Amino acid sequence: MEFKNAKGRDLKNNEYAFLIKNQLKGFPFVIEASDSDGLLSEFINSEKQKIEIALANHGAILFRNFKVSTAEEFEKSLLEFGLVMHADAYSKGGGLTQRKKIKNNVYSSTETSNESPIYFHNEMAYANTRPTIISFYAHLSPNLYGETPISDGAKVYAGLSGETQQILKSHKLIYRRIYKKSNKHFFLNVLQASIKQAFGTEDADTIAKICQTSDFEHKWINDNTLQVDSKVSAVVTNPRTNSYALNLQLLSRDLYMKQFNMIKERHSFWKRWIMKLKMELYFYCKLAPISIMSDDGKPLPKKMLFELFELVNSNACYFKWQKDDVLLLDNTRCLHARLNVEGERKIYTCFGNMHNFNI
Ligand SMILES: [Fe+2]
Fold first, then answer.
1. For the domain with range 112-130+143-321+331-356, which CATH number is right: 3.40.50.620, 3.90.440.10, 3.60.130.10, 3.40.50.720?
2. Which H or E run contains 46?
3. How many Cβ atoms are within 10 Å of 322's Cβ, its own excluded?
4. Cα–Cα distance between 348 and 112 in angstroms, integer?
5. Ligand 1 centroid – CA 124 distance (Å)
6. Which helix (DSSP H) or strand (DSSP E) does residue 283 occupy?
7. Cα 192 to averaged position of ligand 1 atoms, centre (Å)
8. pLDDT category, 203, cuts 50, 70, 90?
9. CA 136/CA 349 separation, integer angstroms
10. Beta bridge partners of 352
11. Measured in angstroms, how far is the CA atom of residue 174 from the centroid of ligand 1?
12. pLDDT classification of 3: cutoffs 50, 70, 90
């Protein structure tokens, strides 16, 4: 039995025949089982140290052709890796997207409408205490599209101009999130989380306690609308590797339109036209769930946002999901997104190993 990397060097493994491919320039690092009867949890149990080294070196690992099949096996694989799960941090800590609980700590990756792309972000970038690891599992790979692009935030940071690096390092960002009791908008089915879905309750006292312990400032705009602000560093030192990386939710009207234009050929002329109109209305009516400001309360300069967007995209990998793929991401280093989906897609997620970046 052999355990090889793309260049054919033996990495030693007595139980499995695996071929490690570096086919996507090492990002993500692909570990492909040559025998699909191999359970992912067993592999991770036997090769945990090497997997940790690969994750530290590459920031993202794609496990392909292993036997996963169920949410339980996905969760078991992550437990073997040593992931300490904190699903509540999202479902009761102001998570922005709707998710369905699948089993224990396993949730659907998002219930956001299939036609809309999701912008690049580090998971829970708006929170000082956030997961350092996030994982996705393709229970049902999409028929068409539905990619989860990932971008290497360490390379993005290294590629930024000195001026932008300096500004991002010396100022915190303010994330303003707006939640409503009802998340149904008559013209756009965005399915962002309602207050109850984001905090597990609508009770004002309980929400106040959650915000206090999470370092969030909150205020009720009216009976139905809650505003939550948090101040977070955009540049972080990765506790695993001690290198700099970005921590961002890369959303603005201009960037969203740019992202949509990148995949506009996937829609017919009329659908494209209607979607653009909906998106313009969405931003005009201030329905975006989150807005980003510099610490003086002003919006980030467009020039800086475009610079970030270009670098995030040029350091991104867009791969097509195959059934049973599992993606393991260093959330401190990597951003992820989602493109539009055609047909059914069941991508599950788990995250954990929380870290407070404010101390
Ligand atoms: Fe996400």
1. 3.60.130.10
2. helix 40-58
3. 11
4. 13
5. 8
6. helix 269-284
7. 12
8. very high
9. 4
10. 85, 133
11. 19
12. very low
Q: How far is the CA of 17 from the centre of ligand 1 (A)?
A: 33
Q: Which region holds residue 178: left if phi is over 0, alpha if psi is between -120 and 50, else beta?
A: beta
Residues 6+ positions from 124 with CB-CB distance below 8 Å: 89, 90, 93, 95, 130, 131
User: Is the Cβ–Cβ distance between 96 and 291 less than 8 Å?
Assistant: no
pLDDT of 82 over the 90 cut: yes
Tokens standing for residue 108: 């659907």
User: What's the chain's Rg over C-alpha atoms?
Assistant: 20
Lowest mean pLDDT among 81-95, 197-211, 336-350: 81-95
The Å distance, Cα 123 to ligand 1 centre, comes to 5
Q: For residue 351, report the distance from its CA to the centre of ligand 1, in Å.
A: 10
- The encoded tokens of residue 21 equal 């491919």
For residue 14, report the distance from its CA to the centre of ligand 1, in Å. Answer: 36
Rounded CA separation 133/123 (Å) = 9
What are the Cα distances from residue 59, in Å, to 238, 243, 260, 290, 325?
Answer: 10, 11, 26, 26, 17
DSSP string, 171-201: SEEEEEEEEES----SS----B--HHHHHS-
For the stretch 48-77, pLDDT in tens is 999 999 999 899 999 999 999 999 999 999
Phi then psi for residue 347, to 5 deg, are: -110, 120
Mean pLDDT of the chain: 86
Domain locations along the chain:
112-130+143-321+331-356
